[in-house]
Amino acid sequence: MGISYVEYTLDELGFVGRGKSKHRPRNDQVLFGGKYPFIQTGDVKAANLYITQFSETYNEVGLAQSKLWEKGTLLITIAANIAETAVLGMDACFPDSIVGFIPDESKVNAFFIKYYIDFIKQEMQQISQGTTQDNLSLDKLRTFKFKVPAKSVVDEITNVLKSYDDLIENNNRRIEILETIAQKLYQEWFIHYRFPNHEQAQWQDTEQGKIPVGWEVKASSEVIEFAPRMRLPKEGLKPFVSMPNVSTSSMVIDEIEWREGNSGTKFQNGDTLLARITPCLQNGKTAFVQFLDEEHPIGLGSTEFIVMRSKTLTPEFVYCLARSAPFRGHAINSMAGADGRQRVKNDCFDAYYLAVPPQKLLDDFSAIAEPLFKQVFALSKKNKNLKRQRDLLLPKLIE
C-alpha cells in the first residue's frame, strides 16, 4: 500500500490489564445474581464485534472481588479460547482469563487492534500451546509487535472493516427480533393459552391444572423423539456441529465443520439440538437444524447434544419448547454425574408433561413461525458471506 508504519507493543498503544476474579471457588454462588455483567471467554468467542449478551452476573459481593471495566474496552481471551476478541457493549467484569485493552486514541482505536489480533490470531494460538492447557500469558501478549500507520490511516482501515461488521450486527439484531417474535407467540398461545378465539374455549381440570377442552396432557417423550436413530455410512466427509458453534441465545449454528466417520449424534433438518452438559445447558445452547441439503441430508454433532425430533408436534413448536424455562428447568434439575460434568439423561423427559394442543392450532402456529425461522437462516447465511468478505479483505489492509 506504500504506507509507512511504526512498530509498537500492545502496552505502548494503550492500557493492558488482566481481568480480576479473586474469590475461590470462582463458581461460588455467593458471587452471582446481581446487576453487574460477568463476561467469560465463551461470551467473547460468541460475540461478533460487540459483547451484548452474557450468561452470568455478579452481585455486590462479586463486584468487590473483581473490577468493573468500562463500555468500549477491547477484550482479548488468553485461556480456553485463545485470542478471541470483542468490544464491551456495556460496563462489565471479567476474570483473569481475559485481558482488557483501553487504547491511546491518539495512536489507535479498539477496533483496529481487534482486527489486527484477528489477523495474527493463528500466530498467537501457536505460541500459546502448552503441555496441559493452552494459555496466552500477558508476557507473551506483550511480545507481539503491531505495525501501526498514521492515525488517519488507522481510522480509514477501521471504517472499511467495521462497515462489514455493522451490517453483521444489524442482521444479528434482526435475527434476535425474529426469534423473540416466535418465542412470544409460543408463550402466548401455549403457555398463557391466549391463542386465536381463546375467549370461546371451554376448560377442563387435569393434573397440569386447567387446560382448554380438546387439549391433552402427554409426556414429552410421547410427542417428541429424543435421540432418534439414524444410519450414516462411514465413508466421506459429513457436516459436523460442535458445541462451541452453537449459540447460547439463538437457533443459529455459527459454523459447520466437516469430518470423516459417523461417530456422534445424528440429525436432519427440522431437528432441535439441546446441550445436555453443564454449563452449556444452563447457558442456553440450543440450535435448530435447517442447513442440510439433498447431498448431505443427515448431519453429525457432538455426543453432548440431545437431538429432539417431533413425533406429533411441529419442528417449530419443539424448538420453542426446548427454549422455554419450564422445560429447561426440568432438564437441569434431572442432571446427574460424578465426573465434575453433569449430564441430562434422555429418559428424564418421560416425566415432563405438557398440554398438547389440537393439530390445527399447531399447524397455525408453524404457518407463522416457519417463515420466521427461514428468515433467521437466510440472515445467518448473509452474515457468513459478510464475514468471509471481511476476512479476505483483512490481510490486504493490515499487512
Q: Fill in the CATH topology of the largest domain.
A: Adenine-n6-DNA-methyltransferase TaqI, Chain A, domain 2
Query: Could you give a short account of the major beta sheet?
Result: 5 strands, mixed
Integer count of domains = 2
- CATH architecture identity of the largest domain: Alpha-Beta Complex
Question: What are the low-pLDDT stretches, counting only 5+ consecutive residues below 50?
Answer: none
**What oligomeric state do these chains adopt?**
single chain
Major sheet: order of its strands?
2-8-6-7-4
Question: What Rg is obtained from the alpha carbons, in whole angstroms?
Answer: 24 Å
Beta percentage is 15-25%
Name of the CATH first level of the largest domain = Alpha Beta
Number of helices: 11
From the N-terminal CA to the C-terminal CA, the straight-line distance is 9 Å
Beta strands, count: 21
The overall pLDDT average reads 93
Helix fraction by DSSP (H/I, runs of at least 4): 25-40%
* Fourth-level CATH superfamily of the largest domain: DNA methylase specificity domains
**Shape estimate:** globular
Instruction: Output the structural class.
Output: alpha+beta
Description:
The longest helix has 41 residues, at 151-191. The chain folds into two domains: 6-149, Adenine-n6-DNA-methyltransferase TaqI, Chain A, domain 2; 200-358, Alpha-Beta Complex (Adenine-n6-DNA-methyltransferase TaqI, Chain A, domain 2), CATH 3.90.220. Helix 6 (151-191) packs antiparallel against helix 11. It has 399 residues and is α+β, with helices and mostly antiparallel strands. A hairpin with a 2-residue loop joins strand 10 and strand 11 (209-212). The strands form seven sheets. A five-stranded mixed sheet has the order 2-8-6-7-4. The termini are close together. The chain is built from eleven helices and 21 strands. It has helices at 41-46, 60-64, 110-119, 121-127, 138-141, 151-191, 220-223, 280-283, 315-323, 325-333, 359-398; strands at residues 6-9, 14-18, 32-38, 50-51, 56-58, 74-77, 85-88, 98-103, 145-148, 203-206, 209-212, 216-219, 224-226, 238-241, 257-259, 265-267, 272-275, 286-288, 299-301, 305-310, 353-356.
